[in-house]
Amino acid sequence: MIKQYDQSFVLETAHTSYIFRLLPTKQLEHLYYGKKLAVSSSKDIEPLIEQHAFAPGNTNIYDEEHPEYSLEDMRLEAGMIGKGDIRIPFVEIIHADGSSTNDFLFQEAKINTSHTPIRTLPYALNNKEELEVTLVDEAYAVILKLYYNVYPEYDIITRRAVVINNSDEEIKVNRLMSTQLDFSNHNYVLTTFNGNWTNEMNRHDHIIESGIHINASLTGCSSSRANPFVMLSGKHTTEDDGDVYGLNLIYSGNHYEAVEVTSYGKMRFIAGINPQNFSFLLEEGEIFESPEAVMCFSAHGFNDMSKHMHAFINDCIVRGTWQHKERPILLNSWEANYFKINEQKLLRQAKAAKKAGIELFVMDDGWFGKRDNDQSSLGDWQYDPKKLPHGLKHLVDKINEIGLDFGIWVEPEMVNVDSSLYRSHKEWTIEIPGHNQSEGRHQRILDLCNPEVVGYLTDVMSELFSSANIKYVKWDMNRTFSDIYSQYLPSSQQQEVFHRYIIGLYKLLDNLTKAFPDILFEGCASGGNRFDLGMLCYMPQIWASDNTDALCRYHIQNSYTYGYPLSVISNHVSSTPNHQTLRTAPLDTRYNIACFGILGYETNLADLSNEAFEEIKNQIAQYKAYRHTFQFGTFYRIKQDLHNWCVVSSDQKEAMGMIMQELVLPNRQHHQFIARGLKEDSHYHFFNQEKQYNVKLFGDLINTASPIHIKQDSLAHHVVAKFVKMPGEVEDVHTSGSVLMYGVNLKQAFSANGYSEQVRYFQDFASRLYFIQEESEIK
């Protein structure tokens, strides 16, 4: 709900308030954002207003009529250069006379009943109220509009800005942020998620004491180096208690999040397009739109903030046919084949996939042009007749006859120099003509600033997607930007390339997702190099990382869940030793991590042992039974000695939980599983799936029970292993939700003093999956 009391504005969600007012000098003063306050008049707001009688020494007052106000020491909604505020600015414009001073003052505010559309970028849907504030720099006839959209049930407020050039001269926008939050103190921790290829989303907590802290990307995409989702929290905030702000950007390009502590102890947070290597020319009457920023506050810890972010993304960011639809279990061909695919191999693997219960078969890279490695053929999207002698449609029809849907890998934004497309259209790439070019993965980037390129790719991809019964598309993007130059744009606009590329990308994706609404598109960019809310407006799920190692994936997926729901996180079970780390992890652990989200497999099912194949078959059957909760349930991270997850159905009648350990601690027998999100006063059945273990896992300990000596890895050892299995522990508990949320003491872990069905086989990287079913409500 949006309310105005005299010169103050109050934005309310179910549990939060956002309040600002008009200063006597006509700037907007930020007063409060946090836990919901009871406000019904301007009198209620007065205690939130900072008291100023005289400006601090060695500062600049805004004007002589208001000697109490130095903008350097004010909490503002939009900071600007040139009138005394020397902090990181919200907006920076260079005018025709060369001046960079901006003096945007309040003109009017109005409440709209729907979201004002953004012409060039995606934005959140399903809101009912919007506050539109107009500020004017009268000296230069430039308008700055601030938009605030309120999503009450999600505790979400979004912000964005628009610059309109109403002058008769050209201006240059060097910076336009999406949101700004000014705090009265700096007692916060900034949490960022950083990494690189196969090492995404490492959580870093920065205690804010002084200076400027920046989280940013200059790769041309949102990047694996610095995800645009960040958090500001109290120093003692936990998963279940304390203040936290979750902050994100609906944008897939270079982004910038910064926190600055002032010499007066205040703190400014700012987020938007990265101003480095950015400038946008506006002629008379032209506008520039910032991406939309998403803000969420919770007084109840990280889990509560995440819960609201997850619901908001599922309902207001993801859209189309697959928005709330359960996603299929797929088998991807990449790690089983790499580039060495052919029709015979793929059909053999598809038949095994069908027997295992897989629903979708995906042909990854290597199917087109002369694509025997990564050095050629990107841009030539015609099937390779040597690998697919009967054509793409024939293969798809055969896969369909087996009983599987078919998906395909593409990388439309890229081109190899060794390709027919590049030889025909060298002017279509981002490169500096006549210069040596720096490449990534032997490929160059097509110039999506150029509408002709966007139109061409729309046509080529439409022809491909229409050529057979394609149900799924994995859209990849495997390099970062270099040699930033558009051969389409004039020299005066080369600083616009990064942003115009993203505008072109969104236009391309909009064209294709509207033309093929039933295709399930999955985003990918060398794994998590473009995992952001902008892509999720077109692709309802994103490949989280090219790293499928179970231990790495635990940490990567755990970090994603702070800002993104399970329904958008794509995970695969792969072979061991893992192809990225050479680590060996148990098959059940690989599944137990991957099943929290969108489950897939990336291994040669046709080459597996019978034992491993049957285990995967059982995993898939189990996942199907609980799929909706795994994908769309409410997710909780639980802090304890072990890694601990829990996901709960919306009606709280069903839940699944997981524990995992990294390395065994000797003689550590006792562990707990802790649930979250259950009804305290309901009775639940808590249980695991009974397992048996190969006796070979115990090595030569077999001789402690065998009447004859058995040499490890001998023929006799293998024969015994065929007939003798070691029993796994059974958990079978009936109790209340409140007890389960306090914690279940599990069967003891193996500690070298004996083994029976009362002992948990729990080695390095071991895990357990638990199931919770409501039995009755306590009367």
UniProtKB/TrEMBL annotation:
The record places domain Glycosyl hydrolase family 36 C-terminal at 644-772
- List all membrane-crossing ranges: none
Please name the catalytic residues of this protein.
D476 (nucleophile), D546 (proton donor)
**An example Gene Ontology biological process:** carbohydrate catabolic process
- Statement: the UniProt record of this protein carries the keyword Hydrolase: yes
Q: Which GO terms describe its molecular function?
A: alpha-galactosidase activity
Family, according to the entry, reads as follows:
Belongs to the glycosyl hydrolase.
Protein name per the record: Alpha-galactosidase
